[in-house]
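Q: Structure tokens for this one, please.
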Amino acid sequence: MIPARSLSVLASISRDSDVYEMGLAGKTVVFWDGTPLFTARLMEGSYPNTARITEQFKPRYAIRVLAEELAAAVSSVSVLEDKSPKISLSFGEHEIKVCMESAYGSSAMPVKALVLSAPGQPFCYNAKALLNGLRTHDGTITVEFDAAGLLAIRTGKTQYYQSPMRPAQQARQAA
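A: Here is the predicted structure, written as tokens:
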């Protein structure tokens, strides 16, 4: 397995037209296109059965939103925490509200959205992970949620899933 971070770095220094040859050298994988050389470490283990997740995902709630606007809101409200920013998404009639509370304060930002169906409670997510998923999409996307808050963005051949986190209040009470 190749770490996603390594592939992200390779993608950031590549153009869509770039074609690489790939080879193995010990416990690393080497990408070469004639001039630059890029290596990434290989991880041992087996790839998780993602088909099981995608087959069992049953969307219950959905919104249509501009990926760039939702990413900007998540990025803006998550500046209050740099370690592991936890944001909550709550649903209104014509918007989704991105909120965050930390020891430094609280922030919230509404994003215009077509709310197709909405849960009665907010769902919480790791902001950095959600931003990574949102930045791989552009334009109008459909964000689906199952009853427990598992989030899915599925466009074309790309699928992004993110598990919800416990709300901050429950986490403090459990500690």
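A few notes: Residues 67-77 form the longest helix (11 residues). Helices lie at 4-12, 50-56, 67-77, 127-134, 168-174.
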